[in-house]
Protein 1
Amino acid sequence: MTSQTDVQNAAAPGAAAPQTTHTGHPHYGRITTTGQGDPALAAGLQKVLDGRWADARRMTREAMTPDMLNPIGVTMEEHRAHVLDQMRRLADSGMPGLGFRTEDGGTGDTGGALTSFEMLGHLDLSLMVKAGVQWGLFGGAIANLGDAETRGKYLPGVMSLDLMGCFAMTELGGGSDVQNLETTATFDTETGEFVVHSPTPSSEKWYIGNAARDGSMAAVFAQLITHAENGEELRHGVHCLLVPIRDEAGNDLPGVTTTDHGHKGGLLGVDNGKIMFDHVRVPREALLDRFGAVDADGQYSSPIDSVGARFFTMLGTLIRGRVSVGAAAGAAARTSLALAVRYSLIRRQFDHPATGKGIPLLEYREHQRRLMPRVARAYAYACAQNAIVAELHDFEKNPEAFDAERRREMESHAAGIKATVTGFANDTIIEARLACGGAGYMAENLLTEMRADCDVFSTFEGDNVVLTQLVAKELLGAYAAEFGDMDQRETVAFALTTAVDVVQEKARASTLWQKLIDTVTDRENTDLLDRANQLELLVDREEHLLETVARRLRKAQGEDGSAAFKVFNSAQDHMLQAGRAHMDSWVFARFAEAVDACEDPEAKEVLGTLCDLYVLDIVDRDKGWFLEHNRLTTERTKAATAARNRLCTKLAGKARTLVDAFAIPEFVFDVPMLTDGGVDAPLETTSGADERG
Ligand SMILES: Cc1cc2nc3c(=O)[nH]c(=O)nc-3n(C[C@H](O)[C@H](O)[C@H](O)COP(=O)(O)OP(=O)(O)OC[C@H]3O[C@@H](n4cnc5c(N)ncnc54)[C@H](O)[C@@H]3O)c2cc1C
């Protein structure tokens, strides 16, 4: 059995006897240093992270108060009441109006609204989600799918919270496959009403935010049905209708049955529930008819002929929720990293053999490897998130400037960044909690609640696997379109050139990767720190994956449904890999653009190092691919690991500054594990000196 002393000796051979003179908080042991940041450098870095909506961030930051933090240890009902109170505060502050068009009573600042929602992710994810359901999803459905009259009638109440509502899309029988949901909305020509109905137990709406308690109306997604003159049933696909569900006293309306989901794995401040409809009648005007209308005679019309195209166009207008979820998860991940980094600078374990003083956690190589690559990715994702927010903002301001291709790309990147960042956030929050040891497990230090709340971000607003597949499908669609336009002669010529190009590109990429790693390892030779080269390397991996998966899928062409599915299904892992590789390079490109635009030389240099670490981290995580595809030799992958380690140590010297630049309100760090200790020399001078010297 290994004793505590063995472990100490193993960690620090020849160590002096453990010092017992450190005093600290009885719960957290010997806390002796805080690690101070460099405010000027942090300000330079913050400017890059704050991005185009820096003003919205500043205003939200100033309005954020400690009582908006996730209340720890309260009952579910207390948390729900607390979140509703905070929502009222937000409504009074005018924040929701940012996201609605001026003609609907808002200020039309999509970017500002998304940025403000993102900031809530630093405080309480329940508040962010409830705000997102009310203003982003329920309000967003009315704003994007409703006509002027409907918008005028309902949106003021949505903004002020006089009308609280649900976004009722998911059913027990199907969450990801929304196109085949079962709820029906059948037009009754006799009365001029729609009959909304849940025909089977599996058609019950499940998991719906605001459904358990506060919602009095729901934007219900249902199969729209009309009848031809001869009585034939005509199905027009999924549409959205506004259906009142509760009276003023909070009771279910006739034909509506709501059920409270009660305790969930997290997000206890949000009242999720189920809704069942039993032939509930709503007037014809309840249909949000931007993409499909029914006239008084029961005639259906739509500007889009194909049911599938109509459905995806409609969903495309609702991507704001998806962008918000990714953004808030990114904010939560940054908070968790800031907590873990601060703790790692004050928490000491085992004594240094030379000084006899306790060693701060972040001095340990492994701790640096756990936290610093995630800090680098947090920077990259924040920049990429800013880019997608800007794209959506510009689109909503001027949709005509977006052709079909650019629009499809925006939708695909919104899906991809949601999957990427929520996956990252879940992984990072867990690592941050582990990096804080037992203290991380105490709810008072915020990480456990954050972990529980963030969990479902990988599932809702589109499951991450399904969304990544969507990214890959979009890439393959673009690839097929390029191929599809060619005649046979051109196809053969293209294939031959491609084959030559592939060989040349592969050789070039391999050389570039080798050089890149040499460069990062040997800092004398800096020419390969060129971002364009780094991007080329990431794109090479993406293109290789895409070309090879396309080749596999070509076999499915001309096959019937089940044979085609078999081919497609056997290549699914390959497709997902292509989707992830694309997001890696897309994120890198957005990060590199943000770094290029940075005017502060010192900040720019640090951001450059973060960029390098982002790239080397990809190599380290996907080593197998680089080896299997002859992009790197084993010697070089080992060198890449060594280079990554070196960058981790270099950046650990600035860790506090790097997380200070996240500009999270200071009250968030007023937690016992960070406040109940003494103060000693900051670590910043230790690891940092190593690199500067
Ligand atoms: C707390 C919470 C709040 C929610 N709020 C709302 C709300 O307000 N309104 C609303 O409409 N919905 C809401 N949802 C529903 C949410 O959007 C769905 O849960 C989500 O879309 C996933 O659907 P599902 O649960 O049916 O999972 P499924 O689609 O059944 O997925 C289950 C698993 O199968 C995998 N899978 C699915 N399809 C594929 C495939 N083609 N290939 C490979 N793997 C696949 C997924 O990766 C996942 O791991 C909420 C859910 C939760 C948990």
Protein 2
Amino acid sequence: MKRRAAAEAMTLVADGMTLGLGTGSTAAHFIDLLGEAVRNGLSVKGVPTSEDTSRRAEAAGVELIEPDETTVIDLAVDGADEVDARGDLIKGGGGALLREKIVAAVAKRFVVIADASKKVAELGAFPLPVEIDRFAYGLTARRIREALVAQGLPGDIALRHRPDGAAFVTDGGNLVVDCRARRIHEPALLDGALKSIPGVVETGLFLRMAERVIFGTADGVEVLRPPAR
Ligand SMILES: O=C[C@H](O)[C@H](O)[C@H](O)COP(=O)(O)O
């Protein structure tokens, strides 16, 4: 299903484009397919959203550039952890949310690829990642908890750890707090409240950003075009 979604996104790619390359297992399919196309003569440049993606794209033979080497990203393609009916997303399960959001926000078109299991009626069952600065992270985490509770959400948060028990550190050197909000009724309100806390670098709420979401299903693809708001 992930591969099908990635293959459909490939139909949006044209020669000469600069592409934002997302992170995660679904984006990896897109990078692999892009590599195949490059080997068959397609000429594109990629802006990777993580070190993992950079390594994968390099191995696939995709030419990479630094974000500051371009002023235009024609199309960014990335996965998601949850997608609601409006095309709003939770991202950051792999910890790449900050770079992903920077690239998606700059791109002329931001297209999300996902398997159908990522569809939800309301965001929040997937713990919301919030990237925070390391300085005084305990104090920042306390304020994140307070912000959740103030919105009637459970203040159930956890600092993300790696499997070996060490704190998870993003490519940018920050920490990640995962918020088990369960049901986020007002994503924009929550996003604003979290971002107003000094120490919060970015949230995994990608709101009104996706131009379309391509879901890979058991027998094809479904495309969600977010309604105008
Ligand atoms: O930080 C990671 C990214 O936001 C991923 O795009 C997201 O977690 C979805 O990953 P996957 O395609 O592996 O489910």
Protein 3
Amino acid sequence: MININNLTVEVEGKQVLHDVNLDIPEGEVHLLLGPNGSGKTSLMMTITGYPQYEIVGGSISMMGKDLAELDITDRARLGIGMAEQRPPSIDGVKLKMLLDYLLADHPERRNEIDSLIKSTNMDSFLNRNINEGLSGGEIKKSEILLLISRQPLFAMLDEPDSGVDIDGLELLSSMINTLFSPMRDIPAKRRTGLIITHSNRMAEYIHVDKTHVMLGGELICSGNPQIIMNKIVTSGFGSCVECKRHESIS
Ligand SMILES: Nc1ncnc2c1ncn2[C@@H]1O[C@H](COP(=O)(O)OP(=O)(O)OP(=O)(O)O)[C@@H](O)[C@H]1O
């Protein structure tokens, strides 16, 4: 579904990604870990198509289509969706307006979205400006609700668990599982996705196929989610550097 080859990216003249290679097959959900400032958000912003993230080497393709040929709007039309870490509030744009817009061509999704709004206690947000005055956890719920309404083929979540309390995490995880559950039109397939997180709690609630670790703008490790997370929890990201060195020696 997503193929990233030798990707190098600059923002404001600074190289933030170096020679990144990453494949996410259709129907798989991958986690992206890494210390603060390592380039995780930059990777998602580049895939989404924010123009300040300039591809200076390599390529990204989705379903065989080179994303360099598409601007941010065309990438959204192709099926790329992202729940941002800190989405902006938009004066005059209500959550209800966005949902109505997204569901206009998909009336069959309306019942599911209405019951999700009720079960997640989001009724009171509907007539407020998007993200304005919402708590950290409420913003995350609103972002994921919009993604579920849109149903992108490839969904990226940037730290969906940050600022979410323990009870809220269970609710949010059930929303994320709804997002990635088998697709209505192709029931055998899960939605494809990439999730940035700093905690091991996500993988407890959501089935993850593979984990990647980013350090200094490079993807330095990929593999079994549980093994990688255990290693980081016990020995920190330094263990990933050691692991990479060892692998390149052997
Ligand atoms: N628009 C920008 N202008 C200047 N520097 C930027 C910009 N976007 C990202 N950077 C820099 O790129 C580096 C990587 O940032 P990025 O947000 O991708 O890291 P991250 O791994 O997502 O961090 P965190 O875990 O803290 O969210 C940082 O040094 C950041 O300051």
Protein 4
Amino acid sequence: MAAASKKFVIETQDVAKLYKSGETTVRAVDGVSMRIQPGEFIGLVGPSGSGKTTMLAMLAALLTPSEGEVWIDGTAISQLPEAERVRFRRERIGFTFQSNNLVPYLTVLENVQLMLQLKNGRLSSIDKERARYLLVRLGLENRLNSLPQQLSGGQRQRVAIARSLVHGPSVVLADEPTASLDTERAYQVVEIFANLIHEENKAGIMVTHDLRMCQYVDRVIQMVDGKVDTELNQREEILEFISCA
Ligand SMILES: Nc1ncnc2c1ncn2[C@@H]1O[C@H](COP(=O)(O)OP(=O)(O)OP(=O)(O)O)[C@@H](O)[C@H]1O
């Protein structure tokens, strides 16, 4: 398979994922090709069962495609031996999931620093400053020493966003990061997320059911039945898409 261009942080070519159950095979993702540049924030949308989460899991190197290839920073991730893939994922990819998986007995600051400890083996003063900086940017300066259970849903989501960015990954993936939030908080969270992705020149992908959140993205990719159905990258088109929903 042809090597990917270094210009794109994420590149996929004809990616498919097949699930077999008994006699039937579901093509959960069916021939998806996409290219995402540094500093681009993508909204991945589509009806339930259209393959969004499966696609995200393949981009995160958590699931191996049945067909096709995913390149991150020009590296074909299915070609990496398992141990290298784990290290690659830890260094290059950040995640925010709906159930944000914060460690309950660590403080907000410790939860974010943990990613740096895992990556670097120890915490430098620069690391500590970086974790604090992101939490302040996300409006959590008064919550650094709180435990996750003492936070609201929106505050926990913001900690999860800080954690997904802190170790300087190339790619940041978010699966329904605003699912548990009211509209006003959801807007705030996605706006800060978009700003950080742009400022830090990451490739960001957010899966969302709430099309209104796409007002902060640079491109909308809509999946239907495992395939890319619609792609919009003009601001006016995106706003019209949101208003027609
Ligand atoms: N582990 C699995 N085994 C078998 N089928 C699966 C598995 N995971 C997903 N599927 C099927 O693959 C298809 C795509 O699922 P996926 O979760 O990726 O969709 P989605 O767009 O994220 O849906 P939702 O918006 O409801 O979260 C669905 O038909 C689903 O039933």
